[in-house]
Predict the structure.
Amino acid sequence: MKFTRRTLLKFAGIGTVAIAMLPRMAFAARNTLRTVRTGIQPGNKTRLVIETGARPSYSVSYPANQLVVTLSNTAANASLAPSLVAGSLVTAITQVQSGDKLQIVADLAKPINEIPRDNIMLLSPNGDNDYRLVLDFAASSGASAVASASSAAKQSSAPSRKYVIVIDAGHGGKDPGCIGKGGTQEKVVVLSVAKKLKTKLDAAGFQTYLTRSNDTYLKLAQRASIGEKKHADLFLSLHANANPSRAMQGFSIYTLSEKASDEEAAKLADAENAADKIDVSGFEQFDKDIRIALSSLQQHAVAEMSVEYANGCASQFKRAKITQQPGPDVRHAPFAVLRSTVPGALIELGHLSNAAEEKLLKSSSHQDKLVAAIVKSVKSYNFDV
């Protein structure tokens, strides 16, 4: 049986809460490829086993006469020789490195259909084995293979179901956020970007919600609770930054952590949390059972999935040639708005304290550029693993 990363558990008296399952590796370090092997299963099925040192994030595609498994944040293993059994559909296996992604390309003797989800398993370490991604498949007729390829191509351009994205435009109402030298208010910029992002994600097949659609003040816990109530798959909080140095510019991306990754991240979290003076050291604003769930999830699945999304988002920003603030791609701090069971990230779109970037953040064309990069990051995020 193949598990997805989220399931719904019911707590007495508090309704339904989204709880992550099978936590994924936080990709601070690269995953390692251990072995690749094939076998024969009953019913003349071929089994492909990919073993990795950490739990992999993966996707599967079906080019003509090939099966391609793409592993995120994984390096090729040049010394690895795949173990192939005689009589399977796999005639050869090669490794192709593409940026931080590793493709395991299996050449096939005959075409196959798209592999059903029930025939893809992710097994946890057991004895001498590490994580194993197991795929079972059989040969198909030419007509069905063509139909499958067409179906796979269509599915690659849109999500298989309507994943739920909650977009949080930071600040609002009595809280203007940062104010640029030219008078530009953070709350105005991020609301504009949030509305554009919603339009684009809706068009791409996602179900999106805004925490605020007008100039309204919301407490941070209210914003986080919207993600919970909507059973969101991803929570994106949009902000614009300020810095004592007028020369500082560029985007930055943050995920939730009890301990800040650096002094600057700590200061930013303090500034953002000051919006309603929430106590970020505890979960007093939540019911007891939710606090228990949050405490566990923060240490495991939610934090790890959030880092995975954030890394992908930073990559898309850089590909779009959007200026990055000096420092690591992703930073971590105790942001109250991210404190929930929903994976998410806080995105600082740029610095209003920088005169040139203030003008950019006000411009519709630059906002469109930011939105396009975020849309690509959402599309490339692996929701199902």
